[in-house]
Amino acid sequence: MTWFIERPDRFIAEKKAVAALAGEVDWLSAYDFMLDGRDRLLLRFTVLAGGASIPLELRYPRFYPDAPPEVVPLDPDLRLADHQWAGGSLCLEHRADNWRPEVTGAVMIRSAHTLLDAEATTPGGAQALPAVHDLTLGQLLRGDTFRHLYSVELIELLSGFAPSVPTMATMRYQSQAETIVSWIDTVQSPGGTWRQSGFPEGSRALHGVVMWIPDGASASRLLDRTASDLPLRLAAQAQGSEVGPNDARFVFVASSDRPRMVWRVLGDDQQLIPVIPLPVGDRGMWRAATNPASLPRKRVAIVGCGSAGSKIATTLARAGVGGFLLIDDDVLMRQNLVRNDLDWHGVGEHKVHALGTRLKLIDPDVAVTARPIRLVGQEASSSVDTALEALAGCDLIVDATANADAFNLLSAVATRSRRPLVWLEVFEGGLGGMVARHRPGVDASPQDMRSAYLSWCRDLNAPWTGVEEGDYASRDADGHVFVADDAEVGVIANHAARFALDALTDGHTFPHPMYVIGLRARWIFNEPFVVRPIDVPVGDAGDEHPLTEEVRDAAIEFLDELLAKRGDEDPPP
């Protein structure tokens, strides 16, 4: 519904206000209301500013008066003021950031006249007028296709170089939807090749020159856009340059005020293109303040890289975990995209490799080991043994397989290696889920916890009467099918990720080792977001395999024999 049909009172008030303004001032004339081809209300008028008659158009938005109108030149190619957006709209006193519904079109007309007359009659023009623009970085960059990311470490490196001396460097870049984003990869510093950390690898690379010129004005003069051969000339001056005659494509100059950059764009060598350098930001800023500095030294095993496992892994990477062991034999297919944290870039690839790539795009310095094997499948025993050995060396094991056989194996590894274990279950049909955490010496054993959970379910006297359909789906007694969607899997996975972070940091945020979380008003849950903790008593660990003195002595004697023989025989290949 159009505003002037919904609000005829405001419609008439607008007409009266403009007529009143025209009768009050001598600089407004030839005003005329009309509808455009999209049934938007327009008001064309002429103002006298600085001795010139200027035809303008006021455009009412569909959601007026809750959204502000705009005033533009009637000639779309006419640039009237420095206080004017790229699309032609004048930047007036009343804008989207301070708009109030009681402001009328007549007030906007008066504001437009004030701006244009002030720019025309004030000594110094627009530069002498106070600016009220408070634009975000995104607003400032809307029209800039080429952008370059730089770190504080790069500027510190270049500031130690001899002034105005070119140094060879490589730059990586990637094409986004609307922009081309680049960053310096390596610099041939006097101490050897310096690599900028914290940036992704594998993108396309170009050669060019970096320099330190303390004076910003001198740097600006050097980067003359018409000097298209500048990168080539500077590269020829750089010591030890092995760049071919047409290979130098950029110049990056750091200065005391700000960095500057130009590109010699592929396919267009006639003119240099200015590039906007952007500080990439402090790497520590995107870490949660509550996460300790030890997380980058932690290594987490994610067994099962499907819908839940992929979400847990990416959450832990964002939190600052520095190493991952990924185990899963499955391949990412299109149907997995409805819940998996991966996207089309990984379709057809093993999930562990696709997830590893994603983790390194979140934190390029993260260490990832990917093993596309099935721990409880038909695999070579040596492959499984190697994987289990790697699991035992991790700081935390996450079981995201929803497979009882895999859980039994992982719980054994966690118990024998005294590693914490986190596991989860997403209930079919999106009912909710369960998250659990075992900490050696603090919580009950994983097997005891699982037994307690199964007993808890049996003791509810509320059996689930639906039919499991697979792939997170279930069908109730009436034939209705319910499916756990991405949001529901994500809720349970994120709870498991919080459990994991707590276990990694020896925290005590969660007083219970297991929680059952309801997301729908079905089964045992009378409403969504019901949480039921489960406590499991920690029994006397004792010794699962009591050792007699006779057995101990026999084992020592046998081991001595093996150690004596080890030096006489070559190890198997």
Could you give a quick summary of the protein structure above?
Helices cover 29% and strands 24% of the residues. It is an alpha/beta fold. An eight-stranded mixed sheet has the order 15-14-13-16-17-18-22-23, sandwiched between helices. Strands 5-7-6-9-10-11-12 form a seven-stranded mixed β-barrel.
Structural description of this entry:
This protein has 3 domains: 132 residues, Roll (Ubiquitin Conjugating Enzyme); 142 residues, Cytidine Deaminase, domain 2 (3-Layer(aba) Sandwich); 240 residues, NAD(P)-binding Rossmann-like Domain (Rossmann fold). By secondary structure, the chain is an alpha/beta fold. The radius of gyration is 34 Å and the shape is flat. The chain contains 14 helices and 23 strands. Helix 2 runs parallel beside helix 3, helix 8 runs parallel beside helix 9 and helix 8 crosses helix 13. The N and C termini lie far apart (79 Å). About 1% of the residues have low confidence. The strands form 4 sheets. Strands 15-14-13-16-17-18-22-23 form an 8-stranded mixed β-sheet, sandwiched between helices. Strand 13, helix 8 and strand 14 form a beta-alpha-beta unit.
